[in-house]
Amino acid sequence: MPEIPFDAFGLPEAPLLSLDLDDLDQTVRLGRALAEVFGEGVFIGLLGNLGAGKTTLVQAMVAQLSPGFEARSPTYTLLNHYETQPPMVHIDLYRLESYDDLESIGYWDYVEEPSAISCVEWLDRIPNAWPGEGILIELTRTDEARRARLWASERYRAMLAEDVAARLGMGAG
Ligand SMILES: Nc1ncnc2c1ncn2[C@@H]1O[C@H](COP(=O)(O)OP(=O)(O)OP(=O)(O)O)[C@@H](O)[C@H]1O
Ligand SMILES: [Mg+2]
């Protein structure tokens, strides 16, 4: 299970939402809800062990934004760009090591593009890649269970705790 650098992210340790993802469908449902609620300019950081479902979640968001579009894992390309509506940039920090590596891929130009949604896998590899505002999602996979925990910076708290939760049938709060 990843150690989440809450101090670096400026987030409280307690998640706003905590969900069991019993099957692939549940992961897809979460991705769809996120894409319905959060629009252009949002940053979504994804943490979690290998095969936990980070790329799957982004695939579901992309399919929700523009049916027929497909997200691919950026593990080797480092960065993918999708002409969805709004456009999305999908980055994987797994093979990067330092803040300098971010600059060499033009990270901030992509992440600070106000018309795009940014999704960044393995954010815990380079905690300084967190822009200060956004959504943080930890996916965990153990032998018995898969789980998602979600946090939001102040700006996005109500959207996550109310709008996303309602779409997932969790009611308010
Ligand atoms: N809730 C779930 N229950 C069961 N299987 C799931 C669930 N969510 C996703 N999966 C499956 O688990 C795998 C997750 O792979 P995925 O590439 O999304 O993980 P990842 O977190 O991006 O891994 P990596 O760290 O290698 O980038 C996929 O085969 C997907 O179909
Ligand atoms: Mg992945």
Automatic annotation (TrEMBL):
<dbReference type="InterPro" id="IPR003442">
    <property type="entry name" value="T6A_TsaE"/>
</dbReference>
<dbReference type="GO" id="GO:0002949">
    <property type="term" value="P:tRNA threonylcarbamoyladenosine modification"/>
</dbReference>
<keyword id="KW-0067">ATP-binding</keyword>
<dbReference type="GO" id="GO:0005737">
    <property type="term" value="C:cytoplasm"/>
</dbReference>
<dbReference type="GO" id="GO:0046872">
    <property type="term" value="F:metal ion binding"/>
</dbReference>
<protein>
    <recommendedName>
        <fullName>tRNA threonylcarbamoyladenosine biosynthesis protein TsaE</fullName>
    </recommendedName>
</protein>
<dbReference type="GO" id="GO:0005524">
    <property type="term" value="F:ATP binding"/>
</dbReference>
<keyword id="KW-0479">Metal-binding</keyword>
<keyword id="KW-0963">Cytoplasm</keyword>
<keyword id="KW-0819">tRNA processing</keyword>
<comment type="similarity">
    <text>Belongs to the TsaE family.</text>
</comment>
<keyword id="KW-0808">Transferase</keyword>
<keyword id="KW-0547">Nucleotide-binding</keyword>
<dbReference type="Pfam" id="PF02367">
    <property type="entry name" value="TsaE"/>
</dbReference>
<dbReference type="InterPro" id="IPR027417">
    <property type="entry name" value="P-loop_NTPase"/>
</dbReference>
<dbReference type="GO" id="GO:0016740">
    <property type="term" value="F:transferase activity"/>
</dbReference>
<keyword id="KW-0460">Magnesium</keyword>
